[in-house]
Design goal:
By secondary structure, the chain is an alpha/beta fold. Helices cover 56% and strands 10% of the residues. Strand 3, helix 8 and strand 4 form a beta-alpha-beta unit. It starts with a helix and ends in a 5-residue tail after the last helix.
């Protein structure tokens, strides 16, 4: 669709004189010109103008700063689109490693807007499953490894983890809840700070229609019994990467089940090693959606 400058001004709330200045003085947009010399603005022009308005009116940027950010995002989008045919030519890890490296570089340098643009484009090019389970998850794992080996700062690890977590949690509100399924609780027990596996499993459950109450990492025991009872929780999901926390986690589960004998338990993560019965029967592979699906079909759908 095409818009005249008067229509663009009215729809966006930007004076026509300002639109002209952004075009001629800063080269922010390139509208189409009719034979008579009149400007016509495309949907992409309108999107760019809206972006500039938000940066200047709501975020306090100067127009030159906003235009520079816009051009950086446009360059990044073009680079990614140009690299897509090359990436599509290779299967498996090679196909998305470039996206992982670019996204990690943006986030580790705290370039938030660039990372947002990259993620939005990634979802449009590669879809939900590839972006969530392969790219965003890999970025979170990478920063954890880089931090443990001293190549990433605490600030970088926290920033990237929170950025990816918030982006993933935003999908919780998009999937409809199937009221026929049991309510679930997802958490990492006290002392466990790595939540990537728990987050992915919770997203899997939400996509299946389960109502998941996500508490995240390092959750204290206090109040959990009350939540189980008041929220009618039927399934609890726990994730662990540190095997030293395994025994205290089993004790925590035993206390919960004392008052909730019908509670279904599912465990995941590298922290569960050489697990004794009855806990071994509750452990699921952390990276196998096939096993997750089998568990969902066999256990959850039978409630």
């Amino acid at each position: 669709m095409m818009y005249t400058i008067r229509q663009a001004s009215t729809l966006l709330g930007i004076p026509a004189v300002t639109i002209r200045a952004w075009e001629t003085r800063y080269g922010a947009i390139k509208p189409v010109r009719t034979e008579g010399g009149y400007r016509l603005f495309t949907d992409k022009n309108m999107e760019d103008l809206r972006f500039l308005k938000i940066q200047t009116d709501e975020k306090g940027m100067t127009i030159s700063q906003a235009v520079r950010m816009l051009k950086e995002q446009q360059d990044l989008r073009e680079q990614l689109l140009e690299s897509k045919p090359e990436m599509d030519a290779y299967p498996g890890k090679q196909a998305h490693q470039d996206m992982i490296d670019r996204l990690y570089d943006s986030l580790s340098n705290f370039r938030t807007e660039q990372a947002k643009t990259m993620i939005e484009l990634g979802f449009s090019m590669y879809g939900y499953d590839m972006m969530i389970y392969h790219i965003l998850f890999s970025v979170m794992i990478k920063v954890g490894t880089e931090w443990e080996e001293g190549r990433a700062s605490v600030a970088q690890e926290h920033f990237i983890t929170q950025f990816v977590t918030q982006r993933c949690l935003s999908f919780f509100h998009l999937f409809p809840v199937d009221e026929r399924l049991p309510r679930m609780l997802a958490l990492c027990p006290t002392g466990e700070h790595h939540q990537a596996g728990l987050l992915l499993f919770s997203l899997f459950l939400r996509k299946k229609g389960a109502d998941v109450l996500y508490l995240g990492p390092d959750t204290p025991e206090d109040g959990i019994q009350k939540i189980l009872q008041e929220q009618h929780i039927r399934v609890i999901c726990l994730s662990l990467t540190d095997p030293k926390l395994m025994e205290q986690t089993f004790a925590f589960i035993d206390r919960l089940r004392t008052s909730n004998l019908e509670l279904e338990v599912v465990l995941g993560g590298q922290g569960f090693q050489d697990v004794p019965e009855p806990y071994a029967a509750w452990v699921l592979p952390s990276d196998s959606q096939v096993e997750w699906e089998n568990w969902f079909q066999d256990r959850v759908l039978r409630f």
